Recover the amino acids of this structure.
């Protein structure tokens, strides 16, 4: 089986990730921050270490500004709805995932003004268009770092500067970039960074996080037991407790920490370079096949390891079905929860067959897939 | 090491739970409901099976009415805030956890009327007091099934009847009961049932759920990608998609399903009976010790496997520290995120030392703990 669906969730994970989760579950599967006993302290310490590792990865000064969530969608909902209120204006782009567009759609119905900047046919966003659309009540700019459809790498640093120069908060959706692309919240002027734990960071499902810059008063989405100031009926104000009510996914967060450790060990630059090579290999070879269309930028300097293709006018689900059933190749067809991005690149009707690569894919797998696509394109 | 903190999180889990999680992560760790390939379908199927198992356990007709969340706190926030709006009246009790009281505290500040029924010194709630406090705008009654402080079993069926007779929604917090006490949402007239996956249900941390009765239009807390009707910017209305945006904790839910299978295999009645025996053993023995006070009902027919004690006027943290450091016994001191419940039973200042038992505890462990408490009570 060849797994090319890493943009949905990375698979497999490094063995050390599996091992650390099992160890946490079997040896110290207690409730962190709730009791003072050895087991509870140990899992609490391990969770703090994951916070430290993530802070280091994103150049965050204080690990307490890293909040754990259950996935990137929760992070985005928290970041977006925690900041915006009636009368505010938000600027986002047509390249966003539904995890950004759907919360914004709800806020729009509640009186938040929304401007959506259209990407070009390669999925690129022009920062000057964002700048032009800033108004007096613009409170937040949101965009993805790497498109989950076209793989397009967005000019985060340029947009961050525009946000900073205009006193606007900047939220980046790092769903496809965290763990593979360098993210420096200071250098990029990112105020809020949403990320999944189970994609590029190589942690397990059920993990995600949000960085919140100091001084930003984001409303929490949930209240409950935090194991802190338990005598009060009011949610504590302190980070990260304010945002982390209820029992953590302890073993999951331990596994996420191990994923980040693995990235540090291998080198994020080496992982990215390897994924770029796989992407380049795939793009170059499929472009040679008659009838195959590749979407997004062709240069790997401009794209992540996400490559959407189509074969003629064939339905993307049909192609994906053949790849799975005949060749044991796992890809994702359809709309990828990004309907406006599909409209932007003109694939809203047909969908695309999305190949997405991870650090455990090989050039041999790419060759096999290219051969399969050749055969399919001849047969249909 | 003796683990008596099962009310915080059950530990250990059955081996089959660990094994199923590892298998899911290593063999089919894909993203359910996002792609059509074999791995994605397999994890999707397994998640559906867990839904079916939970539906069977709680006598829910349609498994799609079981929503997965990341913990019981999230379930409670969703259930409470999804129903109540400005002008509504809610009745709850002083025995609730902060995961109920803190969301309600926020709603109160937003114009929801709140009545809190006081428990008696044993933590018992009198249903007639609930009935007396019903008003024209009463929309929701909320109470815990089993107190996380005193272990008191609440008269859920009686309260459910009052709710039904008065056309009021009934939300039960099953944090301490799910997987140990019989829950029948029909017979008990429960409209909304919040439960954790990682306590009595013996699943891993990072799992929880909410049952929502058909016809109840609960507002979702998060919007995002659901893998369904992806062409729309609006959140789908269908169950469970409306409430499950973003990537599931796939392996965690598989483990939860295995926990529920284990409960069916052992028999929920047998598990309960065993925990009752452990509780009875412990309560009877510690009551014989000079200077020890036991809180909550003494009869195991009236209490769950949660036993709070104090030794003289000694601070509960100090006793717990001695139990951990000298005897390797893990318990939880303090306020247990239930400040009003502590006020109700008069332990707000001192806290209590909470012993909570699970299916893997033994009578030998109870004997050892009793001996330790005897020694401590002599020494202080």
């Amino acid at each position: 089986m060849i797994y090319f669906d890493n943009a949905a969730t990375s698979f497999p994970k490094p063995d050390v990730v599996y091992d650390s989760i099992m160890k946490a579950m079997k040896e110290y599967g207690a409730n962190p921050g709730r009791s003072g006993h050895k087991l509870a302290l140990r899992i609490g310490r391990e969770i703090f270490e994951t916070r430290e590792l993530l802070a280091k990865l994103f150049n965050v000064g204080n690990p307490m500004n890293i909040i754990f969530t259950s996935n990137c969608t929760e992070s985005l909902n928290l970041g977006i709805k925690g900041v915006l209120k009636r009368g505010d204006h938000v600027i986002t782009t047509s390249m966003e995932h539904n995890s950004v567009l759907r919360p914004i759609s709800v806020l729009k119905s509640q009186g938040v003004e929304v401007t959506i900047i259209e990407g070009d046919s390669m999925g690129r966003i022009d920062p000057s268009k964002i700048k032009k659309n800033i108004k007096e009540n613009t409170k937040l700019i949101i965009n993805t770092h790497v498109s989950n459809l076209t793989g397009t790498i967005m000019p985060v640093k340029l947009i961050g500067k525009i946000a900073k120069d205009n006193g606007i908060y900047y939220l980046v959706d790092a769903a496809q970039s965290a763990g593979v692309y360098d993210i420096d919240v200071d250098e990029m002027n990112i105020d809020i960074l949403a990320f999944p734990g189970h994609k590029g960071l190589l942690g397990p499902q059920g993990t995600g996080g949000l960085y919140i810059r100091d001084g930003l008063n984001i409303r929490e989405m949930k209240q409950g037991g935090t194991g802190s100031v338990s005598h009060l009926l009011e949610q504590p104000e302190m980070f990260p407790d304010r945002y982390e009510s209820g029992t953590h996914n302890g073993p999951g967060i331990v596994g996420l920490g191990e994923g980040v450790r693995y990235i540090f060990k291998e080198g994020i630059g080496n992982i990215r370079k390897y994924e770029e090579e796989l992407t380049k290999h795939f793009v170059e070879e499929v472009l040679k096949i008659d009838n195959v269309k590749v979407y997004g930028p062709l240069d790997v300097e401009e794209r992540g390891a996400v490559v959407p293709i189509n074969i003629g006018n064939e339905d993307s689900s049909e192609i994906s079905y053949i790849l799975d059933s005949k060749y044991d190749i796992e890809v994702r067809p359809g709309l990828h929860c990004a309907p406006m991005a599909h409209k932007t690149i003109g694939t809203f009707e047909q969908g695309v067959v999305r190949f997405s690569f991870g650090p455990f894919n090989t050039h041999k797998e790419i060759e096999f897939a290219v051969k399969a696509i050749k055969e399919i394109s001849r047969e249909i």
